[in-house]
Amino acid sequence: MKIAIVGGGPGGLYFAALMKQLDPSHEITLWERNAASDTFGFGVVFSDETLGGIGNADPVVAEYMSRRFARWSDIDIHFRGEMMTVGGQGFAAMSRKELLELLQRRCLELGVDVRFSTMAPPVEELEANYDLVLAADGVNSQIRAKYADAFGPDLDPRSNKFMWLGTDQVFEAFKFFVKDTEFGVMQIHGYPYSDEGSTFIVEMHQDVWHAAGFDETADEVFPPGVSDEKAIAKIRTLFAEELDGYEVLSNNSKWINFTTVRNQSWRKGNVVLLGDAAHTAHFSIGSGTKLAMEDSLALAACLHEHPTVEQALEAYEAERRPVVASTQRAAQASLEWFERIGQYKDQDPTRFAFNLLTRSRRITQENLRLRDPEFADAVDRNFAESQGLAQVAPAMFQPYTIGGLELKNRIVVSPMDMYSATDGIPGDFHKVHLGSKALGGAGLVMTEMVCVSETGRITPGCSGLYTDEQRESWKEIVDFVHARSTAKIGAQLGHSGRKGSTKLMWEGIDQPLESGNWQAVGPSAVPYGPENQTPVELDRAGMDAIRDEFVAATVRADEAGFDLLEVHAAHGYLLSSFLSPVSNQRTDEYGGSLANRLRFPLEVFDAVRAVWPAHKPVTVRISATDWIEGGNTSDDSVAIAKAFVEHGAAGLDVSTGQVAKEEKPAFGRSYQTPFADRIRQEVAAPAGVAVIAVGAISSYDDVNSILLAGRADLIALGRTHLYDPQWTLHAAAEQEYHGPGAQWIPQFRAGRRKPPTTRTDAIRPRLSLLKEPDTEQTTTHLRWTPASAAASAMVK
What we know:
Residues 3-328 form the FAD-binding domain. The chain is α/β, with parallel strands linked by helices. It contains 27 helices and 29 strands. A hairpin with a 2-residue loop joins strand 18 (400-402) and strand 19 (405-407). It starts with a strand and ends with a helix.
């Protein structure tokens, strides 16, 4: 093959070396506009997994890298005058300059035509004259920009400012210095890369950056290689204590806003993107160099395995895209956490450390327990102490009081529409459905959305509380839960609004009824989707009538014996549609500004709260973002949550979306939790109000991790309880918890131990006279101590 490579960073160089090893007859030319000695940056970090791949692909490169690595397993978190050390992580880093010199030398040894200080020919020329054109030209890729229509780039510049620096202080571990300055919270990401220095990345929110006066040089254009010395002088002063007399080192160091790069496609004909040109991941979860070298390995392998360039590039993207997407999801969660770091500045240091470690959701409490059991135990103890609880237990099994209602544990069965009522009357199905969840160990069981009127139903199968017959049926269910379990039960009240008069879910979700339909209503005559009814815009009389229906349903809910009431103001139903500018296009006092859009939902909430017993809590479910341009955002949700808290809400059940058909949610594990977290930190916790997190949370490990980090007070799980009605009790068995937070009813008690599955569960006899050494045994705490050759060879 005849290959053109644009960009002489680690990704481009490593790809060239790999291709030459696979077939020396490949003609490879690499252009790099900078000189060979122009190396920007300090250290690069690799995972053990990536190092294993490099070792398999090029032993020469791997062996040299291994001799130059700084290795350690500890993370030191400096916060509020304390340093917390967490071990068992496993890091390997080296100088970026040394890595580039190694790869440059390797390419020359193998016969790659490397042209430094030379601009590449136009990409059109390269396309015509080469079999393959590799665009490894970085985050500001000119090739990607040239063919933007084909690649479909999505560039997302973030709000934090950061600067790559170094220091001659050799850190012993990965260092997070989190400092609450007079200007706001700033943080240092630091790690050793040799026996001579460490990377020292300064990061802060743009507002803090402005307040500290770093914008003094904002309009200056620094040539390549020139650093922002005024800013660096200020950094030396601000972090004098952390530097401890050591120097700050610069290398093309200037303020940057991190940009997340995504592309709809990584290939166009014989042109392919690699590394930062194709994708970026925030530095707080790893190294862009690591991703680029993994790209190179995969691309070289695919080119070697497939007969045509087209097939190879298709295979490359199919193989790498899921890996990169997973990394980018973790990176997005991490960068957003650091953008909001100021909201955690008053957290207890132990909780803060755990919060920081679990920010990307790749580390959890159980994962941490394997890495550093001593710190994991300290987190559990800290949580119990912070809650004033005598017993140390998994966080999910610690009791919680919401608005005077005592719950035995932190698990909620989320409201789930079952579409199985007749004329709004819940029957045997609902009794078995909700009763089984109560017997399964949850602290609080929530009904589906119980509709306040016949025309307020979503479908003909939705239940209601608009007749006395419905009330009596609900009372039978509530009485069963109270008599047969220690769970509490809550009713969620709502009105379908513009999403009403549709088919049962399994007949066509959100599809309009073909017969027997009723007129949908809403704040404006705007349909939910192109196939849905155009709702009638409510006038004052219609709004009064619906408010009164909520009141009547509330009275019946109390008469039925429910312990808690939730007002459904999420998911695009009536109250939610008043809150969202997507569905509320009114021009009167109930539309326009957020304060106006809040007016009717708050009127309903106030009316409900007025007739619901004062000793029983009322919560509100909200959609924290509409996932649609022009809709409500996370900022709006904070204001909405604050308004409901001021009107007496005892809890906020934080969901997202489902407001409009054209939404584009960012699905993923625990993807809604960051919204709950923000509302808890900024609104709920200061007011003593509970926050319930919900959405793609399915493991007890994730539940405990969310609670221990202080991101929510209660966790609602829906589909997980459909899969396993006794999920909470099974989670207790898995964690070997025995206590009041998870009690089996007498009839089921014989099943409280996990049954054996296969013969592989059997206890094995000892068949060796002498104990064999444990080759897998590792050290929890490993510090980077360059003077010790033995330490540099160890790795967790």
